[in-house]
Design a protein that fits this description.
With about 725 residues, this protein is of the alpha+beta class. It contains 12 helices and 13 strands.
């Protein structure tokens, strides 16, 4: 099947454009998917940071409230009573007396907190052996077999925060699993005024409100799962209907109201999230699962943040179709421009050269080709015009030599006819008289000899011209073959140039990919720097808030000191009856002075932190600007490299087209070479004919010599 040059050029170009479009689409689609995953990951990380910040804030609040009860006189007296009994006996009467004393002494404080905060203060006092002394938010201290009873139950087997605080006599706070599930706890050791360890006091902050606050907002859900091996502690989560098992490894503590959201949670997702952050996208929902750790850094559960991203997905689909349409328009423009360029630069000149070669092959040697492309095509047209001109001159010379040979042959025929007439005259001479005939034959022979000599000279000249024509025709054939070799060399060089263009295109594409990766890396650095800037700004705001709180505490300490002074004055007025009250007022005054001193030191630290935060914020601003400049430069470099890739692709296609055109021109040149060889063969045959004619004339001269001898003999006879 014969394929035209246009098809050889445009079919590969069309296929290359389709492949380029497909590659661009897949690259764009993969980048959009990667962008979507990064978007989901960043949102998930932000939610994780938000929950951790809320947990830290709750722990700090619990610590502050718990610290208020560590040195109260009522607490100190109650513990002295409790420790005077048998703390290993859950029903010891001294423990019951201490329990009741704490409820009575702290009643107004607890009622005031509940009235203001609309919630009970979950304050829990423990004995140093790990038994519960009193839970102040409950009317009775423990529930056994469905009944509330007032005993000191043993919690040492599952309340490790309490055991560590009493064993190491230090503060322990964080997330811990209890009977009711997850709670944030702050446990502080209790010490007497003489430095003796009494036990510990604990503040509980429920974890569920933190989840509700973090999940507030349209399309957001937070699901909490606990490791199933902790069910032995969290007895209130053992109802399988309310808290189903997930893959026998997790227990659902809290779920979403939408069953479709709950169905997205799989055991594989939870298992993967036990050790690291796990992100997944299902239809229009993104799932960010991350491990939940207790106060000691041990993994105790998994939290899953589900976000409705249907709007974002629709936006990504819209962008994908928009880019696909843009790619189609770009490819169409490339195809039209490429077709027009190849037609104007190669196909049109080649068509003119092909028509010229066909006319020359048909015998029209007067035709010429006129190309004004100012490139190799124009040089090729000039060379072909020169070649045809030389061929026309050689053919003209051959025709002239052939014409001269024909005239010589015609004269030879005339001489032959004269010889025949002479023979007839000789016959008549025999009849009429040999002497007279011999004289006439002598005259005829002399005339024939002169004509034969002249004809021999002309035949020699014609033979020499034919040989010269043969030589010139051979030179023309050699020149044609050299031109054909030159055309083939041009095709080979064009192929090598195409391969070089391909290599340049590959290198440029590699460079573009490297610059693109650099742009992505710099963009990641810029996002991290911006995130760091936000966190530092948030830290500065929190430091400012702590400073304001310390100011309030300082004011409270001043007021407390003033109240203690007034109380001391009133006690002095009361005499002996107010002596005990004076001791308490003095202790309160000392405590207020210590509070003022500590507040001043904390204020100094806060001021130093604020200064450092401002300096760090300024440094981060400079870093963001530097990264922004680097991103712009890298993006510009990537754009330039992409333009180089496009130019390399266009150059490679054009060079291949030139190579193909040169190959077809070589074929046309070979056809002309065959025509020149045919002319050379005809010239050779003419030369051989001239040589045969020369030999015939020599034979004729020999015959005339014999005829002259015969005439002489006749004269003697006559």
């Amino acid at each position: 099947m014969r394929i035209k040059l246009r098809e050889k050029v445009f079919i590969p170009l069309f296929i290359a454009l389709l492949m380029l479009g497909a590659v661009m689409y897949f690259v764009t689609d993969s980048n959009l998917k990667r962008l979507s995953n990064e978007f989901v990951t960043q949102i998930g990380l932000g939610k994780v940071a938000e929950i951790e910040a809320a947990m830290d804030m709750a722990s700090m609040k619990a610590q502050e409230l718990t610290a208020l009860f560590t040195r109260l006189q009522a607490v100190q007296r109650a513990y002295q009573i409790a420790l005077s009994g048998n703390i290993d006996d859950e029903a010891d009467p001294m423990l019951q007396e201490a329990r009741q004393m704490l409820r009575t002494e702290l009643l107004h404080t607890l009622q005031g907190y509940e009235a203001v905060m609309d919630d009970r203060l979950k304050l829990h006092f423990h004995l140093p052996n790990g038994r519960s002394l009193v839970r102040l938010w409950m009317d009775r201290n423990f529930r056994r077999d469905g009944q509330l009873i007032d005993i000191s139950d043993d919690i040492s087997g599952f309340r490790q925060t309490v055991m560590e605080a009493n064993r190491e006599r230090r503060m322990v706070q964080g997330l811990e699993v209890g009977v009711g599930g997850f709670d944030i706890r702050s446990v502080l050791p209790l010490t007497s005024t003489r430095g003796e360890h009494l036990g510990s006091v604990e503040m509980l902050v429920e974890f569920e409100p933190i989840l509700r606050t973090a999940a507030a907002g349209e399309g957001q859900h937070l699901l909490l799962f606990m490791n199933s091996d902790l069910l032995r502690i969290a007895q209130r989560l053992q109802d399988a209907e309310k808290h189903p098992l997930i893959g026998n490894q997790f227990v659902q503590v809290s779920g979403a109201d939408d069953p479709a959201v709950n169905s997205l949670i799989t055991p594989a997702l939870l298992a993967h999230a036990k050790s690291q952050l796990s992100v997944a996208i299902h239809d229009n929902f993104s799932l960010t699962a991350f491990p939940l750790e207790d106060y000691g850094g041990r993994q105790i559960g998994v939290m899953v943040y589900v976000l409705d991203i249907s709007k974002e997905q629709e936006l990504i689909r819209h962008i994908t179709w928009l880019l696909l349409g843009l790619i189609g328009v770009i490819l169409l423009v490339f195809a039209v421009v490429g077709q027009a360029t190849v037609w104007a630069a190669i196909l049109k000149p080649m068509k003119q050269l092909l028509g010229f070669a066909q006319k020359v092959g048909a015998g029209d040697l007067e035709t010429r080709v006129n190309l004004a492309s100012r490139d190799e095509m124009e040089e090729l047209g000039i060379a072909m015009n020169t070649m045809v001109g030389n061929l026309r001159n050689k053919i003209f010379e051959a025709e002239q030599k052939t014409k001269e040979a024909a005239e010589a042959v015609e004269r030879a025929n005339i001489c032959t006819q004269d010889a025949e007439d002479a023979r007839k005259e000789a016959e008549r001479a025999r009849r009429d008289g040999m002497l007279q005939a011999a004289e006439r034959i002598d005259q005829v022979v002399a005339r024939i000899a002169a004509s034969a000599q002249e004809m021999s000279s002309q035949v020699d000249a014609a033979r020499q011209g034919s040989e010269q024509q043969k030589m010139r025709t051979g030179e023309t054939a050699t020149s044609t073959e050299e031109m054909n070799a030159t055309v083939l060399e041009v095709a080979k060089n064009a192929s090598h140039a195409a391969e070089g263009s391909d290599q340049a295109k590959i290198k440029a594409q590699s460079g573009a990919e490297i610059v693109q990766n650099a742009v992505k890396a710099i963009a990641d650095v810029q996002r991290n720097a911006l995130d760091l800037k936000k966190k530092i700004a948030s830290l500065g705001e929190k430091a400012e808030g702590i400073g304001r709180i310390m100011t309030v505490i300082d004011d409270i300490a001043d007021q407390t000191n003033l109240l203690a002074l007034n109380a001391a004055i009133e006690a002095a007025r009361a005499g002996d009856a107010g002596r005990g009250f004076a001791v308490v007022a003095d202790e309160v005054r000392k405590l207020a002075e210590k509070t003022m001193t500590a507040t001043k030191e904390v204020g100094d630290y806060i001021s130093a932190i604020q200064v450092e935060v401002r300096d760090n914020a300024a440094s981060v601003d400079q870093t963001v600007e530097s990264v922004k400049g680097a991103t712009q430069l890298a993006s510009k470099s990537g754009k330039e490299l992409r333009e180089i890739v496009n130019l390399a692709e266009a150059t490679s296609d054009q060079v291949r087209s030139i190579a193909t055109a040169a190959e077809q021109q070589s074929a046309a040149s070979e056809e002309i070479t065959r025509s020149v060889e045919e002319i050379d063969r005809i010239s050779t045959e003419n030369a051989e004919a001239m040589q045969a004619t020369s030999r015939a004339i020599e034979d004729l001269n020999a015959g005339l010599g014999e005829l002259g001898s015969l005439v002489e003999e006749l004269k003697r006879v006559g």
